[in-house]
Write a structure and sequence with these properties.
This protein is an alpha+beta fold and 298 residues long. Helices cover 34% and strands 29% of the residues. It has two domains: 72 residues, no CATH class; 209 residues, Deoxyribonuclease I, Chain A (4-Layer Sandwich). The strands form three sheets. A six-stranded mixed beta sheet has the order 4-5-3-2-14-13. A six-stranded mixed beta sheet has the order 6-7-8-9-12-10. Helix 1 packs antiparallel against helix 3 and helix 3 runs antiparallel to helix 4. It is globular.
């Protein structure tokens, strides 16, 4: 049974991925670290059978290689380098330990802009506590539980729905190197719902703001090897893939195996460092990225 499931999952990964709704749920549920663990279990359970041991041994080696290739970034630094624009994205998971616990963690990162989801700013009392923790910053609730915390003023352009499969917010923020367009995305986590409608709406939104320096980030609830990211990856920099350091998956803490949270940069913004921070107050790791304008990566 394990061999059959692993075989079907591998076939989906190398063919349709999440293009087909029926196959998408298994695709999302079987990232390479999970398939690696399943293969190791299969090898242990079938150690008395030479055939099973050989089969699962080969699968273990294959998925170990794929896990390293897709989930581990051998970046040069353990922290994003200083002196450049910095941004943090974090899914706060509904603040299970309260605003104060989340705020203490956020203050450690010293980013120019902190973008949060599931931060509950629609509740007046919660928003007041956020403001008490960041009195010297600009706070902008942007809808659907999303919150921006900035060193500089924020100009919110629009918010809305992504094909009834998620929410978005677009605004302009001043960074040390100048103004940038920021687009936050928060997609549905239901693995049975196709991402097609949401990504079609997202593409139209990108076209609307074409030509602007753009940071697109959020909880996409979609892994990087998704078919729906193919067109985006041809046009934008994925910060962790290009400049990341360490283990990339962001969910679920304490044993993250899925990369659901992403920070993308438009072509003229160059990622210089990216790390994922583990926390005890959310089931998502936080992403911290540093970047600069207009200089090709070395």
């Amino acid at each position: 049974m394990i061999a059959f499931t692993v075989g079907i999952a591998l076939l989906i990964h190398i063919t349709v991925r999440d293009r087909v709704p029926g196959a998408a749920a298994l695709f999302y549920a079987t990232p390479y670290p999970v398939l690696l663990a399943a293969s190791i279990v299969g090898a242990i359970l079938g150690w008395r059978s030479r055939g099973q041991l050989l089969t699962f041994g080969i699968l273990t080696a294959l998925f170990a290689m794929l896990t390293v290739q897709t989930a581990w970034a051998p970046g040069p630094a353990s922290e994003p380098p200083p002196g450049r624009d910095r941004i943090v994205f974090w899914n706060c998971a509904g603040l299970p330990f309260g605003v104060e616990a989340a705020a203490r963690r956020i203050k450690e990162w010293e980013a120019d802009l902190i973008v949060l989801t599931e931060a509950a700013p629609r509740k007046r009392s919660v928003l007041d506590r956020w403001k008490q923790n960041f009195p010297d910053r600009t706070l902008e609730p942007v809808g659907s539980g999303m919150l921006w915390i900035s060193r500089s003023p924020i100009r919110l352009f629009e918010t809305g729905s992504l094909g009834h499969r998620g929410s978005y917010a677009v605004g302009e923020v001043n960074f040390p190197d100048g103004k940038l367009l920021v687009m936050q995305v928060d997609l549905s986590s239901n693995p049975l719902l196709s991402r097609r409608r949401a990504f079609t709406a997202l593409q139209k939104l990108q076209e609307k703001y074409a030509g602007r320096d753009l940071v697109m980030l959020g909880d996409f609830n979609t892994p990087l090897d998704s078919w729906f990211f193919d067109s985006i990856s041809r046009k934008m920099h994925h910060t962790f893939a290009e400049a990341g350091s360490g283990w990339e998956p962001t969910w679920p803490v304490p044993l993250p195996v899925l990369t659901l949270d992403h920070i993308w940069l438009s072509p003229d913004l160059m990622p210089r460092g990216a790390v994922a921070h583990a926390t005890r107050v959310s089931d998502h790791r936080a992403l911290e990225v540093s970047f600069e304008r207009g200089k090709p990566a070395k």
